[in-house]
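Record Histidine kinase, 600 aa.
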Amino acid sequence: MKIFRKRQWRMTIFPKLIIAFLLVVAPIYGIGLGMNQLGEKSVREELSKSLKSKVDFYLNSLEVENELMKGLLQQYAIDKDIQHATFISNTMTIGVWTETVQRIQEKLQLIKNSSLYIKTVNAHILTLKRTISSDETISDTIDPDYEAVATVSKLRGVGNYFWKDRLFMAIAYPGSDLPNMKETFALSIEINQEMMKQSLQNFSDYKNSGAMLVNPENGWILGNQSDEELRKELSNYLKNRPEDSADEDYKQISAGNSSYFVAFKRSPTFGYYLIAYVPSSEMLGPIDKYRMLLWLLSFVSLVFIVAYSYWLYQLIRKPLHRMITGFRKVEAGMMEPMPLPKSRDEFLYLFQRFNMMTDNLKVLIHEVYEQKLRAQTSELKQLQSQINPHFLYNTYFILYRLAKMNDNDSVIQFSQHLGEYFQYITRNGSDDVPLDAEIKHSRTYVEIQNIRFAKSRITVEFGELPAGCGDMRVPRLILQPFIENAYQYGLETKRRDGRIAVTMIEQDGKLLMSVEDNGEKLTNADLQSIEANLVNQGANMEYTGMLNVHRRLKIRFGGEYGVSVARGEMGGMKATLMLPMPQSLGKAAEPSDTNDARGE
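=>
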């Protein structure tokens, strides 16, 4: 027994892998104790990629913020409140003037809160010689900061300025677009340099490393570096670069007795350079001392790795490749057994069980899977058969009343709509219909209700269906039950001004169909009860109305689709049907059923 277990242990892959790793790792660690793990070339390349990536990411983030600020300035340059305060302030009453100033200040605060890199936002009203700020109330004179952006009136659009070691963005109205018209007001944003400096601290992954923003033209520098020699060297290097040089680069620069790896890139907006630097000593260390030992180690390791790789390929790679090929055949539907390997290890067991699995799959795939599909189809049929319009019992009384009143035109119209309605819901054709046909059926239902209720009492508005959705196949009777619910529970007791809005929009690759009413009977408890039923719907629950549609949509399209409810903007309930857009179904929409669209 012991001899058998010993032989069985020798047949497994585990001891073979241990021996293989010892043959590779033992010589490496025996020769390479005390040697650094990466060579100088690898370190330089990795550092270059890391620094460039950080510089690109941070500068791109700044440029995105700059574009946002530009867009906000351009947007509010034509703001009505600012223009009213500029041109017609002398005609305003004190109350109107105060409200206008408050609205302008609120808008300036919105601009400031839109970005962490905005310190203050000012509106300099030159016609009044006063300034409205996001941080202070309106001043009696033009703020001194206007001097920083005073020349913006000569520009067309947004200008960028350095002034007293501060950064500004500004736009003037009308600017250079109307050269014969005097400047009336200017909007300016001061960049929050403290927030920029805090962001630059993210570059400090190594000791004495960091980042800074440098404008060599005017000597402006922002950063956390206290080494004046490095600042001076970097500024001089950028200033003396040829004009045709690239706006980004990676260099090794000496400053005093130290050497630094430097990556930089120029901002197209403000013209400054973002520079990230790391001391060479922090990265390279004592690599030079081990260079000869590294070559010796590499040669010895290469011999062992080649031999090890070939042996490992023969031992593991080939049977794994065969097994992967077998699994791919199974995925493609080819249930073919694989030849058993000659080795008597774990792979023999795996191949045997794989062949058993393919045999079982051949039997089960036609039983379990088809039974599941039949059960799902049966459930869908059962759910569809439960729909029974609640107003069926009232339609004949309405028809009787119209006939008794000798209103023949209404009798003809009502009978036609009623015939189309019942022909649609009792049709034994396909379970799925074009979405256009479902919407047409809902409109027919509304026409019937318009005869029952006066149009002035309840009005129904249908939105436009997004393009390409009309031919999409959907389960029958998914929209009309929600309109019926709005009539029955939301508006039936409302004597006038009842409204139902049916909207259809595309959002995030999904089609959202909403039915909203302005009924007043919906309580929060009712809404919570409906939401709980939609969430906790189970297999043994009786599905009618809203739950019916919710269950059918999940069966038809998947668990992420269905029905959700909320209180709408009009005060009543808003039920939303979530369907996939035609392109999300994985194939083109099926052609519409002409007979279904006509209700024949």
